[in-house]
Amino acid sequence: MGFFDVFKSNERKRLDVPLPPSSLSSKKLPKLPEFPAVEDEIQVFEKKELKVQEKELKERDTLKLDEPFFVEVDLYRAMIDELNQTNLILKENDAICNRLEDFKNDFDKEYNKFQNKLGDIQRKLIFADKRLFRQ
């Protein structure tokens, strides 16, 4: 009897499964404490985050710069370095995009050439077929 023979028979075979021991069925399991739902905790956390963000936005709105704003030199240099690195990454990404566009254009040109040659061959075969087997 093969593995797939099980699926061929229409009658179901009854499996003899022993009953669980009576000592386990008579014992009652202790009741577990109820835990709060995860979604509730997530919603509470999101509400707290929203309150913090709203508070920060209100503080920003009330902040007015009527006098000079001073930044530490080290912080300023770090910000400038980050901006320069970001600009370099953007330039590299532009170069990559340009190369990809060039590659796609070259591919499209080659594909069009191939299609044209295939069309020429097809027309020539049809012409030869008509000449050889005139109807």
Which characteristics define this entry?
single chain; 70% helix; 135 residues; mainly alpha
Counted by DSSP, the helix tally is: 4
Ends distance = 62 Å
General shape: flat
Structural class: mainly alpha
User: Strand tally, please?
Assistant: 0
Radius of gyration: 38 Å
Molecular structure report:
- The radius of gyration is 38 Å and the shape is flat.
- The chain contains four helices and no strands.
- The mean pLDDT is 81.
- It has helices spanning 5-8, 22-26, 38-62, 73-132.
- The chain has 135 residues and is mainly alpha-helical.
- Helix content is 70%, strand content 0%.
- The longest helix is centred in the C-terminal third of the chain and has 60 residues, at 73-132.
Write the layout of secondary structure elements.
Blueprint lengths: L4 H4 L13 H5 L11 H25 L10 H60 L3
Question: Can you summarize this structure?
Answer:
This protein is mainly α. The chain has helices at 5-8, 22-26, 38-62, 73-132.
